Predict the 3D structure of the following.
Amino acid sequence: MFLIDKKLQFAVESRVDTRRCVGYNAAGKNFPPTNAMEPIYEGKAKRLYTTDDPNVLRMEYKDSATAFNGVKKEDFENKGRMNKAITLIIYRMLEGKGVKTHLVEDLDDINLLVKKVSIMPLEVIVRNVAAGSFSKRMGVKEGTTFGKPIVEFSYKDDALNDPFINDDYAREMGAATEEECAYIKKMALLINDTLKEFFLEANLRLIDFKIEFGRLSTDPSQIVLADEITPDTCRLWDVETGKKMDKDRFRQGLGEFMESYAEVLSRLQK
Ligand code: ADP
Ligand code: AIR
């Protein structure tokens, strides 16, 4: 009886051991053990895993690129590594400027630890220059610079194709209160000012970008910047040549897709 119990206990322990991994982050410190087997969420570009801290998630950047709501899809070696690195540089810079974000710490080449949030179902888009869906919807030539930045909201719902909404829709859909919309808009414009200057130092023109905000699981009254900021979510044009250095290269089949991401990363690292 004793023997069987021991064997059973060993089997259970070894199963648990193979499912959990205690890792070390970039600084060689312990990070919370993660259940490495099953992500709690797998999206188009990232996977989320729980950690031993219920308020912290591990965010893994995948190598896949998608466009047109996942209709076009392809894997690119090193894409996850580059997007993780770019997000980390930008989030650290923004934190340094006083912007509250979900970033906890760097783990390894494709993983970040982030504060768990409840994502507000809003895609917050800031535009400095006409491009993409703005040019298509409004018939305005790509490259037309706006007098002041435009902030717009989409309702984050793939099944509905992320429809364009305003703050009245956001309120009635329970996505954000009027006060929260005003706060998010103010933060988005502040982030735009900071990012524009930061990218300009890397000889990149920030045309537009999409960001997401979430309510902290530890205190839902606190709204922080979440998700990623990468060439998947920004349009970036080379200042001198006007060359597109972002996901439009994939969307439009322009080639040199990963080469552009590598160039963006190397300029931001300088
Ligand atoms: P999608 O869900 O659009 O396919 P991703 O592949 O990028 O996108 O998946 C990442 C998911 O994680 C997104 O749905 C994003 O809203 C969500 N997310 C981002 N940051 C956090 C966070 N700190 N806590 C919880 N969820 C987050
Ligand atoms: N974006 C919007 N949804 C997903 C993403 N990544 C980003 C685009 C672009 C900006 O939001 O990458 O930088 C505006 O996109 P669009 O298609 O509305 O012109």
